[in-house]
Amino acid sequence: MRPISVGSLILALRRSRGTVPGVSHSLFKHSECRPRVLKTFSFRLAFILHVSICTSSGYAETLDGLDKTPVEIKLTDRVPYGREPVDYFGMESHDAVSELQKRLESGTVGLSAHNRFGYLLSVAELLDVPLESQLLVYSKTARAPALVNPATPRAVFFNDEVSVAWIPGARELELTAIDPVKGVICYTLSQPLDASPEEPATAKTDGKATPLFQRRNGCLACHSARSSLEVPGLLLRAFETDKTGKPIMGFSRVSHDMTYERRWGGWYVTGAPLSVIHRGNLARQSEDTDQQRPPVSASTLSDLSQKLDENAYPYPASDFVAHLVMAHQAHGTNLLIRAGLEARLNRRSDVETQLVRYFVFADEPSLDLTPSVATSVLRDSEFAKTFVRRGRRDAAGNSLRDLTLAGRVFKHRLSFLIHSRLFDELPDECRRRLLERLWAGLNSQPDDEQFGHLRTHERQSLIAIVRATVPRLPGCWQEGPTSKF
Questions:
Q1: Rounded to whole angstroms, how far apart are CA atoms 344 and 395?
Q2: 198 Cβ contact partners less than 8 Å away, ≥ 6 residues apart
């Protein structure tokens, strides 16, 4: 590709009215290599313009020492997270992956290479990411689409702060990690070249070059767009596909308030009861048509061997309960990131109102399982057992991670993300406002628009759990209830 001068770029921006495809066409309309470079250039230009917006003010600013009134913005507006005090593009970060890199460099830990999975198992263990969290996605909607199809889906493993993605035959692991100030940071880790089925199961990194997690800011072209609330966040999509995994139609954001029949297109879902109709496990147009009329058997997938070689993956499931948790966690995490960035950068949208509403599951659709079916699903889910064990508990033994699946996903409808580092390290004023809003809502009238779905006994349980497990509560939480609900 020939060099592009700043003057040519500016002229192209004017001619094209600032659109990325228009700029690309203007610059390369006479180039012999145009078909080859247009796609690459468009992606790179989008990223450059994206960074430029996020490192500039974007809004009128006040002088230091003068008016500090927050700038009113919309939830759909970008925030300039490249600026201090966030400094997203600065090299220093405080997330689980960067901390692991420091441990590797100091020699306190090492990675082991598996003959089939490379560094995956070792990385998952060191980052405390359970293998039973595995979710399999076969839609070609992320990196290395040529390697992903219904027979070889991408495997995604997660905990509260980290996700690790692995594809059979891929040269890299893909990771996201949460910095409580900056938001989601994307990394890759090159797989060892000397791991092959003919070699021993593990090969220590002792005496070799230290594996390097490489930060990938280019991933922000997708990971900081409307689907992630215009901040560096998580992506959870649902696209129905053709037989090759090519997306046909779907949704760029999945959250817990989405109805089940719209969820999980392009994903495998195992262990879901027949009564929960969803778009998972469908890999061609004919299957999608059949799923729209009874019997809807695709919703129930007992084991992965019906779709792929399950021995080729670290865990033999793409668990229904893990899908339910991730559907809540991804958007909740993005709301927390957005709230923190706005507070640090002196912006104010309605994100705090939206966050409180989301945290109490005000718009969650009903999960119509009988108690006996719900108990059976939870009993068969290893992910559910691991997830629940990690919960903080009050004196009565209650936790925000307790699951029910009978009518709703969680027994106590307040997000377990209130125990996350993201929430705990919010700017003090933002954190205080959210907790005061939560207290007021839990003590509101029974017909309150955001909290009316919570009955008296559930509100009382939530208050007890928060008082016992959330540190540094505002003074109002030390008082008795302000109403009788």
A1: 35
A2: 115
